[in-house]
UniProtKB/TrEMBL annotation:
Gene3D superfamilies: Nucleoside phosphorylase domain. InterPro entries: NLR-like, Nucleoside_phosphorylase_d, Nucleoside_phosphorylase_sf. Residues 229-303 form the Nucleoside phosphorylase domain. It comes from the Eukaryota. This is Nucleoside phosphorylase domain-containing protein. GO terms for biological process: nucleoside metabolic process. It comes from Dactylellina haptotyla (strain CBS 200.50). One of its GO terms (molecular function) is catalytic activity.
Amino acid sequence: MQTYSKSTFRLCDDYTIGVICTTEFGLTAFRHMLDEEHPGLEIPDSDTNKYILGSLYGHNIVLTCFPGNVGKCTAAIVATHLIRTFTAIESKFLVGTGGGVPSSKHDIRLGDVVIGMPDDNNCGIIQYDLRKCDDESFQLKGFLHPPPTGLRNIVWGMISDHRGRENKIREYVSEMVQKLGGLSLYSRPTQKDLFFKADYSHVSGETTCCNCDATNTVHREDRWSPDRSRIHEGPIASADSVMKSARERDEIIKNIGKVLCFEMEAAGVATEYSFLTICGISNYADSHKNDIWRYYAAAAAAATTKEIISNLQPPEPSKTTLIALLSNLGLDISYTKLTGWSVVPVSAK
Protein backbone atom coordinates (compact mmCIF):
# COMPACT_ATOMS: atom_id res chain seq x y z
CA MET A 1 0.00 0.00 0.00
CA GLN A 2 1.50 3.32 -1.10
CA THR A 3 1.01 6.48 0.98
CA TYR A 4 1.79 9.92 -0.37
CA SER A 5 3.21 12.84 1.59
CA LYS A 6 0.75 15.67 2.17
CA SER A 7 3.40 18.22 1.16
CA THR A 8 4.15 16.80 -2.27
CA PHE A 9 1.21 14.60 -3.25
CA ARG A 10 -0.76 15.58 -6.33
CA LEU A 11 -3.23 13.78 -8.54
CA CYS A 12 -3.58 13.91 -12.30
CA ASP A 13 -6.83 15.78 -11.70
CA ASP A 14 -4.90 18.63 -10.06
CA TYR A 15 -3.54 19.65 -13.48
CA THR A 16 -5.74 22.06 -15.43
CA ILE A 17 -3.43 23.22 -18.25
CA GLY A 18 -2.02 20.91 -20.92
CA VAL A 19 0.73 21.85 -23.37
CA ILE A 20 1.85 19.70 -26.30
CA CYS A 21 5.21 20.81 -27.69
CA THR A 22 5.91 19.70 -31.24
CA THR A 23 9.66 19.20 -30.61
CA GLU A 24 11.96 18.14 -27.79
CA PHE A 25 13.86 21.42 -27.92
CA GLY A 26 10.56 23.28 -27.67
CA LEU A 27 9.67 21.20 -24.62
CA THR A 28 13.05 22.04 -23.10
CA ALA A 29 12.43 25.76 -23.58
CA PHE A 30 9.00 25.59 -21.97
CA ARG A 31 10.26 23.41 -19.11
CA HIS A 32 12.75 26.06 -18.08
CA MET A 33 10.08 28.76 -18.10
CA LEU A 34 8.06 27.01 -15.38
CA ASP A 35 7.97 28.53 -11.90
CA GLU A 36 8.41 25.09 -10.36
CA GLU A 37 8.76 21.50 -11.55
CA HIS A 38 6.82 18.74 -9.81
CA PRO A 39 7.66 15.06 -9.26
CA GLY A 40 6.21 12.66 -11.81
CA LEU A 41 2.95 10.78 -11.36
CA GLU A 42 1.96 7.21 -12.08
CA ILE A 43 0.10 7.11 -15.38
CA PRO A 44 -1.75 4.29 -17.17
CA ASP A 45 0.38 1.76 -19.04
CA SER A 46 -1.65 2.49 -22.16
CA ASP A 47 -0.45 6.11 -22.16
CA THR A 48 2.84 6.21 -24.08
CA ASN A 49 3.39 9.95 -23.59
CA LYS A 50 6.20 11.23 -21.38
CA TYR A 51 5.21 14.13 -19.14
CA ILE A 52 6.84 16.99 -17.30
CA LEU A 53 4.72 18.44 -14.51
CA GLY A 54 5.02 21.84 -12.92
CA SER A 55 3.37 25.10 -12.00
CA LEU A 56 3.12 28.50 -13.66
CA TYR A 57 1.39 31.55 -12.21
CA GLY A 58 -0.41 29.37 -9.68
CA HIS A 59 -1.66 26.89 -12.30
CA ASN A 60 -0.63 23.24 -12.34
CA ILE A 61 0.57 22.47 -15.86
CA VAL A 62 1.49 19.29 -17.72
CA LEU A 63 3.92 19.31 -20.66
CA THR A 64 4.51 16.63 -23.26
CA CYS A 65 5.91 16.43 -26.79
CA PHE A 66 5.82 14.27 -29.89
CA PRO A 67 7.97 11.10 -29.90
CA GLY A 68 10.26 12.12 -32.76
CA ASN A 69 7.92 11.47 -35.69
CA VAL A 70 5.59 14.30 -36.60
CA GLY A 71 2.37 14.75 -38.50
CA LYS A 72 -1.38 14.84 -37.96
CA CYS A 73 -1.74 11.19 -36.87
CA THR A 74 0.97 11.46 -34.20
CA ALA A 75 -0.53 14.73 -32.98
CA ALA A 76 -3.96 13.19 -32.54
CA ILE A 77 -2.60 10.21 -30.59
CA VAL A 78 -0.52 12.37 -28.23
CA ALA A 79 -3.49 14.69 -27.61
CA THR A 80 -5.82 11.77 -26.89
CA HIS A 81 -3.45 10.26 -24.29
CA LEU A 82 -2.98 13.64 -22.62
CA ILE A 83 -6.70 14.31 -22.28
CA ARG A 84 -7.57 10.78 -21.12
CA THR A 85 -4.89 10.76 -18.41
CA PHE A 86 -5.31 14.34 -17.19
CA THR A 87 -9.09 14.61 -17.24
CA ALA A 88 -9.30 17.99 -15.45
CA ILE A 89 -7.41 19.88 -18.17
CA GLU A 90 -9.38 22.97 -19.17
CA SER A 91 -6.88 24.97 -21.25
CA LYS A 92 -5.00 23.16 -24.02
CA PHE A 93 -2.12 24.48 -26.13
CA LEU A 94 -0.16 23.17 -29.12
CA VAL A 95 3.20 24.96 -29.17
CA GLY A 96 5.80 24.65 -31.92
CA THR A 97 7.46 26.28 -34.90
CA GLY A 98 6.40 26.94 -38.46
CA GLY A 99 7.03 28.74 -41.71
CA GLY A 100 5.82 32.33 -41.80
CA VAL A 101 4.06 34.02 -44.70
CA PRO A 102 4.90 37.75 -44.84
CA SER A 103 2.51 40.02 -46.71
CA SER A 104 1.67 43.68 -47.06
CA LYS A 105 -0.82 43.33 -44.20
CA HIS A 106 1.27 41.09 -41.95
CA ASP A 107 4.92 42.02 -41.52
CA ILE A 108 6.01 38.60 -40.29
CA ARG A 109 9.72 38.15 -39.56
CA LEU A 110 11.90 35.29 -38.31
CA GLY A 111 11.50 34.95 -34.56
CA ASP A 112 7.96 36.33 -34.57
CA VAL A 113 5.04 34.27 -33.28
CA VAL A 114 1.72 33.40 -34.93
CA ILE A 115 -1.31 32.43 -32.84
CA GLY A 116 -3.89 30.40 -34.76
CA MET A 117 -7.09 32.45 -34.51
CA PRO A 118 -10.31 32.09 -36.53
CA ASP A 119 -11.75 34.56 -39.01
CA ASP A 120 -14.97 34.60 -41.01
CA ASN A 121 -13.85 31.73 -43.26
CA ASN A 122 -12.12 29.21 -40.97
CA CYS A 123 -11.56 28.07 -37.38
CA GLY A 124 -7.97 29.29 -37.17
CA ILE A 125 -6.49 26.05 -38.57
CA ILE A 126 -6.77 25.16 -42.27
CA GLN A 127 -6.12 21.54 -43.27
CA TYR A 128 -5.03 22.32 -46.81
CA ASP A 129 -4.13 18.75 -47.83
CA LEU A 130 -7.74 17.63 -47.27
CA ARG A 131 -9.49 19.29 -50.16
CA LYS A 132 -11.50 18.68 -53.29
CA CYS A 133 -10.15 20.03 -56.56
CA ASP A 134 -11.93 20.21 -59.88
CA ASP A 135 -11.76 22.38 -62.96
CA GLU A 136 -13.70 25.21 -61.36
CA SER A 137 -13.09 25.19 -57.63
CA PHE A 138 -10.73 24.43 -54.76
CA GLN A 139 -12.79 23.36 -51.74
CA LEU A 140 -11.53 22.47 -48.28
CA LYS A 141 -13.20 19.48 -46.62
CA GLY A 142 -13.62 18.23 -43.07
CA PHE A 143 -14.36 19.94 -39.75
CA LEU A 144 -11.78 21.31 -37.33
CA HIS A 145 -12.42 22.60 -33.81
CA PRO A 146 -11.69 26.29 -33.17
CA PRO A 147 -9.65 27.35 -30.13
CA PRO A 148 -11.60 27.63 -26.85
CA THR A 149 -13.58 30.86 -26.55
CA GLY A 150 -11.97 31.74 -23.23
CA LEU A 151 -8.45 31.50 -24.65
CA ARG A 152 -9.46 33.47 -27.74
CA ASN A 153 -10.74 36.28 -25.54
CA ILE A 154 -7.48 36.31 -23.59
CA VAL A 155 -5.49 36.50 -26.84
CA TRP A 156 -7.56 39.45 -28.07
CA GLY A 157 -7.03 41.25 -24.77
CA MET A 158 -3.30 40.53 -24.85
CA ILE A 159 -2.95 41.75 -28.43
CA SER A 160 -4.73 44.95 -27.40
CA ASP A 161 -2.35 45.38 -24.45
CA HIS A 162 0.63 45.03 -26.79
CA ARG A 163 -0.43 48.13 -28.69
CA GLY A 164 0.66 50.09 -25.65
CA ARG A 165 3.46 47.96 -24.24
CA GLU A 166 6.03 45.39 -25.32
CA ASN A 167 5.13 41.72 -25.27
CA LYS A 168 6.94 39.40 -22.86
CA ILE A 169 8.94 37.36 -25.38
CA ARG A 170 12.27 39.08 -24.88
CA GLU A 171 11.86 39.15 -21.09
CA TYR A 172 10.92 35.48 -20.73
CA VAL A 173 13.51 34.16 -23.19
CA SER A 174 16.29 36.22 -21.57
CA GLU A 175 15.33 34.91 -18.11
CA MET A 176 15.40 31.34 -19.39
CA VAL A 177 18.80 31.69 -21.10
CA GLN A 178 20.33 33.35 -18.03
CA LYS A 179 18.99 30.61 -15.78
CA LEU A 180 21.19 27.93 -17.35
CA GLY A 181 24.30 28.51 -19.44
CA GLY A 182 23.51 25.48 -21.57
CA LEU A 183 20.44 27.23 -22.96
CA SER A 184 22.42 29.79 -24.97
CA LEU A 185 21.24 28.04 -28.16
CA TYR A 186 17.88 29.71 -27.52
CA SER A 187 19.29 33.24 -27.75
CA ARG A 188 18.10 35.34 -30.66
CA PRO A 189 20.33 34.64 -33.72
CA THR A 190 22.53 37.40 -35.05
CA GLN A 191 22.18 36.26 -38.68
CA LYS A 192 20.37 38.65 -41.00
CA ASP A 193 16.71 37.93 -41.67
CA LEU A 194 16.35 37.35 -45.44
CA PHE A 195 13.04 36.81 -47.22
CA PHE A 196 13.72 35.72 -50.81
CA LYS A 197 11.50 36.20 -53.82
CA ALA A 198 9.32 33.21 -54.67
CA ASP A 199 11.10 32.54 -57.98
CA TYR A 200 14.57 32.37 -56.42
CA SER A 201 15.56 28.93 -55.10
CA HIS A 202 18.12 28.12 -52.44
CA VAL A 203 21.68 27.34 -53.56
CA SER A 204 21.87 23.55 -53.76
CA GLY A 205 23.97 21.82 -51.10
CA GLU A 206 24.26 24.85 -48.81
CA THR A 207 23.00 24.63 -45.22
CA THR A 208 22.72 28.41 -44.83
CA CYS A 209 21.90 31.33 -47.11
CA CYS A 210 25.42 32.78 -47.01
CA ASN A 211 25.92 32.05 -50.72
CA CYS A 212 22.41 32.99 -51.83
CA ASP A 213 22.08 36.14 -53.91
CA ALA A 214 20.81 38.87 -51.57
CA THR A 215 19.67 40.94 -54.54
CA ASN A 216 16.82 38.43 -54.88
CA THR A 217 15.34 39.28 -51.48
CA VAL A 218 12.07 41.12 -50.97
CA HIS A 219 12.67 44.67 -49.76
CA ARG A 220 11.20 45.31 -46.32
CA GLU A 221 11.48 48.37 -44.12
CA ASP A 222 13.66 47.98 -41.05
CA ARG A 223 11.77 47.63 -37.81
CA TRP A 224 12.28 50.37 -35.25
CA SER A 225 13.43 47.67 -32.81
CA PRO A 226 14.66 44.72 -34.90
CA ASP A 227 15.53 42.53 -31.89
CA ARG A 228 11.96 42.48 -30.59
CA SER A 229 9.69 39.70 -31.80
CA ARG A 230 6.10 40.50 -32.65
CA ILE A 231 2.98 38.42 -32.10
CA HIS A 232 0.48 37.97 -34.95
CA GLU A 233 -2.93 36.31 -34.94
CA GLY A 234 -4.70 34.62 -37.82
CA PRO A 235 -5.15 31.37 -39.75
CA ILE A 236 -2.47 28.67 -39.72
CA ALA A 237 -2.24 26.15 -42.58
CA SER A 238 -1.56 22.54 -41.58
CA ALA A 239 -0.68 19.37 -43.51
CA ASP A 240 1.37 16.18 -43.16
CA SER A 241 4.30 17.43 -45.24
CA VAL A 242 6.79 20.25 -44.69
CA MET A 243 6.18 23.28 -46.89
CA LYS A 244 9.54 24.04 -48.57
CA SER A 245 8.46 25.51 -51.90
CA ALA A 246 7.70 29.21 -52.27
CA ARG A 247 5.75 28.57 -55.46
CA GLU A 248 3.57 25.91 -53.83
CA ARG A 249 3.19 28.09 -50.74
CA ASP A 250 1.90 31.00 -52.80
CA GLU A 251 -0.36 28.76 -54.89
CA ILE A 252 -1.97 27.32 -51.75
CA ILE A 253 -2.55 30.82 -50.38
CA LYS A 254 -4.04 31.90 -53.71
CA ASN A 255 -6.61 29.12 -53.39
CA ILE A 256 -7.44 29.11 -49.68
CA GLY A 257 -6.96 32.78 -48.84
CA LYS A 258 -5.28 34.42 -45.88
CA VAL A 259 -2.61 32.30 -44.15
CA LEU A 260 0.03 33.54 -41.72
CA CYS A 261 1.96 30.33 -41.14
CA PHE A 262 2.47 26.72 -42.30
CA GLU A 263 3.02 23.79 -39.93
CA MET A 264 2.41 20.02 -39.69
CA GLU A 265 0.52 19.06 -36.52
CA ALA A 266 -2.37 21.39 -35.70
CA ALA A 267 -4.94 19.77 -38.00
CA GLY A 268 -4.41 16.39 -36.34
CA VAL A 269 -5.24 17.88 -32.94
CA ALA A 270 -8.06 20.15 -34.11
CA THR A 271 -9.86 17.26 -35.81
CA GLU A 272 -10.81 15.94 -32.36
CA TYR A 273 -10.08 18.63 -29.77
CA SER A 274 -10.11 22.36 -29.13
CA PHE A 275 -6.52 23.61 -28.70
CA LEU A 276 -4.88 27.02 -29.12
CA THR A 277 -2.00 26.67 -31.60
CA ILE A 278 1.07 28.88 -31.20
CA CYS A 279 3.93 28.83 -33.73
CA GLY A 280 7.31 30.52 -33.55
CA ILE A 281 8.49 31.52 -37.03
CA SER A 282 11.74 29.74 -37.91
CA ASN A 283 11.58 29.98 -41.73
CA TYR A 284 9.45 31.30 -44.59
CA ALA A 285 8.04 27.98 -45.88
CA ASP A 286 10.41 28.01 -48.85
CA SER A 287 13.56 26.26 -50.11
CA HIS A 288 15.73 28.51 -47.91
CA LYS A 289 14.48 26.73 -44.77
CA ASN A 290 17.29 25.95 -42.29
CA ASP A 291 17.74 25.35 -38.56
CA ILE A 292 19.36 28.64 -37.51
CA TRP A 293 16.20 30.18 -36.05
CA ARG A 294 14.39 27.10 -34.78
CA TYR A 295 15.61 27.20 -31.15
CA TYR A 296 14.81 30.87 -30.69
CA ALA A 297 11.48 30.45 -32.49
CA ALA A 298 10.55 27.58 -30.16
CA ALA A 299 11.46 29.71 -27.14
CA ALA A 300 9.45 32.65 -28.48
CA ALA A 301 6.39 30.40 -28.88
CA ALA A 302 6.83 29.08 -25.33
CA ALA A 303 7.18 32.64 -24.01
CA THR A 304 3.98 33.70 -25.78
CA THR A 305 2.13 30.74 -24.28
CA LYS A 306 3.48 31.67 -20.85
CA GLU A 307 2.17 35.21 -21.25
CA ILE A 308 -1.27 33.89 -22.21
CA ILE A 309 -1.28 31.63 -19.13
CA SER A 310 -0.37 34.62 -16.95
CA ASN A 311 -3.72 36.13 -17.98
CA LEU A 312 -5.79 33.08 -17.07
CA GLN A 313 -8.04 33.33 -14.03
CA PRO A 314 -6.55 31.76 -10.87
CA PRO A 315 -7.56 28.11 -10.66
CA GLU A 316 -9.95 26.67 -8.10
CA PRO A 317 -8.16 25.27 -5.02
CA SER A 318 -6.70 21.89 -5.92
CA LYS A 319 -6.70 18.84 -3.67
CA THR A 320 -3.13 19.70 -2.74
CA THR A 321 -4.19 23.17 -1.59
CA LEU A 322 -7.03 21.67 0.46
CA ILE A 323 -4.55 19.34 2.14
CA ALA A 324 -2.45 22.31 3.21
CA LEU A 325 -5.51 24.17 4.53
CA LEU A 326 -6.69 21.18 6.55
CA SER A 327 -3.21 20.70 7.94
CA ASN A 328 -3.15 24.32 9.14
CA LEU A 329 -6.44 23.66 10.95
CA GLY A 330 -4.80 20.89 12.96
CA LEU A 331 -6.02 18.03 10.81
CA ASP A 332 -3.86 15.34 9.29
CA ILE A 333 -4.82 14.08 5.85
CA SER A 334 -3.43 11.11 3.97
CA TYR A 335 -4.24 9.23 0.80
CA THR A 336 -3.81 5.59 -0.07
CA LYS A 337 -4.80 3.70 -3.17
CA LEU A 338 -6.67 1.23 -0.96
CA THR A 339 -8.75 3.51 1.30
CA GLY A 340 -8.72 6.88 -0.46
CA TRP A 341 -8.79 10.06 1.63
CA SER A 342 -8.52 9.94 5.43
CA VAL A 343 -8.84 13.04 7.66
CA VAL A 344 -8.24 12.87 11.43
CA PRO A 345 -7.30 15.39 14.16
CA VAL A 346 -3.58 15.40 14.84
CA SER A 347 -4.26 14.92 18.58
CA ALA A 348 -6.06 11.65 17.83
CA LYS A 349 -2.93 10.02 16.42
